[in-house]
Specification:
Layout lengths: L6 E6 L4 H5 L1 H9 L3 E6 L11 E3 L4 H5 L4 E2 L1 E6 L2 E7 L1 E2 H8 L11 E2 L2 E2 L7 H9 L17 H7 L13 H8 L9 E5 L4 E4 H11 L6 H11 L6 H6 L5 E7 L1 H6 L13 H16 L21 E4 L10 H4 L8 E14 L6 H12 L12 E7 L1 H9 L4 H11 L2 E2 L5 H4 L10 E2 L7 E5 L7 E9 L8 E4 L3
Parallel strand pairs: 1-2, 2-3, 12-13, 15-18
Antiparallel strand pairs: 1-5, 4-9, 5-6, 7-8, 10-11, 12-14, 14-19, 14-20, 15-19, 16-17
């Protein structure tokens, strides 16, 4: 592509009413010897009767950083010295130095969006004509090879198809954060390979995330790399743990993380892809391949990733993130290592004490009925109807948590000695709760239809296990 060193340049497209309106004016400028070149984005025969440069590949538009058409600019000595976008009679007269042009046209009229800034096009043109600044090695897949099959063959998937991470898609994903592509986020276990923002973006693309999900992905990754979360153990344990992400705050609504019907299931892109991005990082960067570093005996469907938002529609309910120290109104994620889910119901419960008692019975079966007093965590997800029972009784979060915790207490000598061993021996009246303090998280999610709760079963907790970790979502 050649740009003239001197004179006027005009960028237009036929599919623009303002461009068509000023076409006779462009012809007038060419006759006067002022207009050196017209770049047409969509029709090399427009404007008719002029010497038009075909810019359907948009190289000139990208090079000239065109955002609106028509754009008229002046170059002197090989550099741009003035620019007008759209049609403004006085501005065009000032730029051209001609006070007698455009008298028969309206005083002004806005232009149209340049094709070079259409959704997704800026990154494609950056790859085609500029420098991407990306450091990852690009692997070419030539016809008739199928890139989807190639990614399966190379072991870059979780068993489901992944989106090819083309440079343009990665650049688009990076628009979701202010961080630089080469910023180091940490080392991904089990292998301990370094993860940069660019590598995280690559895996977010592969997972099917949108760029506006990426801040949530980065916050969740930061939380998962906290030593308290013990990602190394989670990804290599024989118990088959996965990563659950609970989203709180305005970003959940903004990007569409589901907290209602089927919140823990399928059908919502943000829910399905955010946690999957972390799992793909563990596979592709951390090397956690089943049968290799991933020693999961059975695994569970949630190892593909589980992400949902808490239902924050009840103003009297304190959201999980806020209960864990995040300021009200701020967006945050909480990561939790888990080994599966179970759904429970209490059809006859109509008041909070009885509901808490029945929930406690269900919680006591987590992992093994004989295990109590710590060592295992869980997330209890309360449906809308359960939330209504507590709300109508005026119970805030703290009271709900205390009642459920109390409902899991049993005399030590009632615990199954085959599991607890000598630890199960104690005074008949000595009560022991199922979970240690902080090991049971309570959240609100799901629809308002059905007296159900879901228990998300945790992995090992305590000093040698995994603790839930909460992080604010940053730009």
């Amino acid at each position: 592509m050649h740009l003239p060193e001197e004179g006027l340049i005009l960028v237009v497209k036929h599919d623009c009413e303002t461009c068509r309106m000023i076409a006779p004016l462009a012809a007038d400028l060419e006759r006067r010897g002022l207009l050196r070149v017209v770049f047409s984005q969509d029709d090399p025969a427009f404007p008719p009767g002029l010497q038009v440069a075909d810019d359907r590949e948009l190289e000139a538009s990208w090079t000239l950083q065109t955002e609106i058409v028509p754009t008229l600019l002046r170059r002197e000595g090989g550099r741009e010295t003035a620019r007008v976008v759209g049609w403004h009679r006085q501005e065009w007269q000032a730029l051209t130095g001609l006070n007698d042009i455009g008298g028969d046209l309206p005083p002004e009229r806005p232009g149209c969006g340049s094709l070079s800034v259409s959704p997704g096009m800026a990154e494609e043109l950056q790859v085609r004509y500029g420098s991407t600044g990306l450091g990852a090695r690009e692997i070419a897949v030539d016809f008739p090879e199928d890139p989807f099959e190639q990614m399966f063959d190379r072991g870059w998937t979780d068993g489901l198809p992944v989106v090819p991470p083309t440079p343009a898609r990665v650049l688009r994903m990076l628009q979701g954060t202010r961080r630089e592509p080469d910023d180091i986020l940490g080392m991904i276990p089990p292998s301990g390979e370094v993860c940069t923002v660019e590598k995280a973006a690559i895996n977010a693309v592969m997972a099917g995330c949108r760029p506006d999900y990426f801040p949530v992905v980065l916050a969740a990754l930061d939380a998962a790399l906290d030593p308290d979360f013990a990602l190394q153990g989670l990804m290599s344990t024989t118990m088959g743990a996965g990563i659950c992400i609970i989203v709180n705050g305005p970003i959940a609504r903004r990007i569409g993380v589901n907290s209602g019907f089927n919140a823990l299931g399928h059908g919502f892109r943000a829910n399905a892809t955010i946690a999957r991005a972390l799992q793909l990082m563990v596979i592709n960067i951390g090397g956690a391949v089943p049968g290799g570093m991933d020693r999961s005996t059975m695994g569970h469907p949630g190892k593909f990733g589980l992400c949902f938002a808490e239902d924050e529609s009840d103003p009297d309910w304190t959201p999980l993130a806020q209960s864990r120290g995040v300021p009200a109104g701020h967006s945050a994620v909480t990561v939790f290592g888990f080994c599966g889910t179970s759904i429970n119901n209490a059809e006859k419960a109509r008041e909070p004490v009885e509901l808490s008692r029945q929930i406690g019975l269900c919680l006591n079966a987590v992992y093994h009925p004989g295990l109590a007093g710590g060592g295992l965590g869980a997330v209890l997800v309360l449906s809308g109807e359960y939330g209504r029972i507590y709300r109508e009784a005026g119970w805030p979060r703290a009271q709900v948590e205390a009642a459920i915790h109390k409902a899991t207490e049993r005399p030590r000598n009632h615990l199954i000695a085959d599991y607890m061993g000598d630890e199960a021996i104690g005074e008949p009246g000595e009560a022991i709760a199922k979970f240690a303090e902080g090991d049971l998280l309570v959240v609100r999610a799901g629809s308002n239809a059905g007296l159900f709760s879901t228990i998300i079963h945790g992995w090992s907790s305590g000093p040698r296990g995994s603790q839930p970790v909460t992080r604010e979502v940053l730009p």
